[in-house]
What we know:
alpha+beta, Beta Polymerase, domain 2, 10 helices, 2 domains
Amino acid sequence: MPISESQLQTWANQGAVTTAKQTHESVRYALDSSTWPQGVSYDIYLQGSYKNDTNIRGDSDVDIVVELTSAFWSNLTENEKESLGLTPASYQWEEFRRDVLARLISYYGSAQVSEGNRALKLAPSAGRLPADIVVCGRYRWYSNLVPTADGIILWARDSGRELVTYPKIHSEKCSHKNSQTNTCFKPAVRMFKNARTYLVDRGVIDDKLAPSYFLECFIYNAPDGSFRSNFQSCYCDVLNWLREADYNSIRFPSYTASLFGNDDYQWSVEKAKKLLNLLVQLWNNS
């Protein structure tokens, strides 16, 4: 017996957003209320499910980007930088991260702030959700010496590895996809995220099998025609397409890298196929 339309519609509903916005504003105030070195500028914004309107009931951690904008990094060679007249910035990412951490500790207290491998961790309190604060620099991708895409860059604490992502482009692409599908894409993402959570809550899968970001990127690749206002049809059409897809052609919404692979920023085909099979079983056995 299939999952009922009413259940899928409930799963497609968006979770609360007020506390996420309050958390974002709290972090902004904590950083804006202190004095910064002359010439230093930054931007603070949400990323992830709360930014993309794909958060579901029960989502907790808020992803907040604190981006240094008074300097930027790029894919240019040293010779190319010289030809464009670019010179090294005096205030670098390491200093910025250190200063952001110090200001957050000063505002919230040392017991509320800790360091993760890729983000600073802010503990929850009354009116504030737990937050992953991504301290990063601006990243520009150049093609033939012309900037063509803006992203963010940071370095992992454990390995020093450079990490580049494009959260604003991801958000723009998902919003465009939602518009192109008559606003059916984002509810579909929430529907599948809740189905995944249903399996996690019942111990069928581990919560690390299908992180929300990978699931959203995976679903994005389904054709626009798969997304319908009838949630039963949408569930089946998207799921069937993903099961038959050429995984070599599946890409992140924001850039051309493959979603699947062995790198730590990629998902595994094995995990994706396991999730899809369990989502089929969930449909058949409801």
